[in-house]
């Protein structure tokens, strides 16, 4: 998979830009706060319809503008197709091959991207919410049906929590309606749990292989999905539904007291283990960085395994954050395999390590001065 063209209008600090990419390594070079990250963000938003930097879509629209527009020409093994995304203050519109897509699940997955930024260390060190978002974003790219199940689950969860509160306040007395919401919660929640479990097992396989190379065989990396209740060993939907239903019943009184749903995928987490020790708690900063790098790079092979296409890799100012050995390993992993976009303020730390000739664009104050080779 490649991105051959990128066009933006009124996006962040870009009035308009149209770039054509011919090579597999593209570097956006410039000082800080000039718009390099905004270009990477536009590719991410084109793929995922939302930003990794903000939940407020109006921030993506240029100052005093009514809309933002992103278009990309995506080349796959057997086809080339345009993707378009319109962002307004009223919402978003997506098009695949000039045809508007009413369902998010029909659009997501047309362009697969992996983003690695300095703040991705928070994947290891941050809150469970960050790791759940990571799961949802990455699984959603490979399995659009997952996004549908997730949206439905979140909708039912909100309704159920509101109803639990109303029951506690004696504003509602219809237990039958709560049962209906519980059935829906179990239906969608079980599918999410199953998809996450399968994803973690496959991601662990690829991440551990990479981690052992980086650590020269000294460390074994494990990924453990930590659920709010004990999951069945057999990964089957009926068993997951049964287990989920039993836990809901078991925690009925606790839910009434706390006026909220206390078990389910909305409360789950991932634990990273190196040589069976929790990296979040006991790992060094170097181990935490290596874990984050291994997990991100593992997604390349996992997405290829699932979709048959390599994703596009977005590296936002991460090279300067990695030591020489990690830089070398990253570049060796991606060379001649995936199209990669890198933002950086200097080429000094890259010159001697790059084995492929890049396309280099200089970014200054929201304008691209042209390719420099």
TrEMBL record:
Q: What gene does this protein come from?
A: recF
What Pfam families does the record point to?
Answer: SMC_N (PF02463)
Where's it found, cell-wise?
Cytoplasm
Q: What is this protein called?
A: DNA replication and repair protein RecF
Q: Which SUPFAM superfamilies match?
A: P-loop containing nucleoside triphosphate hydrolases (SSF52540)
Which domain of life does this protein belong to?
Bacteria
Protein task: The RecF protein is involved in DNA metabolism; it is required for DNA replication and normal SOS inducibility. RecF binds preferentially to single-stranded, linear DNA. It also seems to bind ATP.
Q: Where is the RecF/RecN/SMC N-terminal domain?
A: 3-366
Please state which protein family the record places this protein in. Belongs to the RecF family.
Record the organism.
Enterococcus lemanii
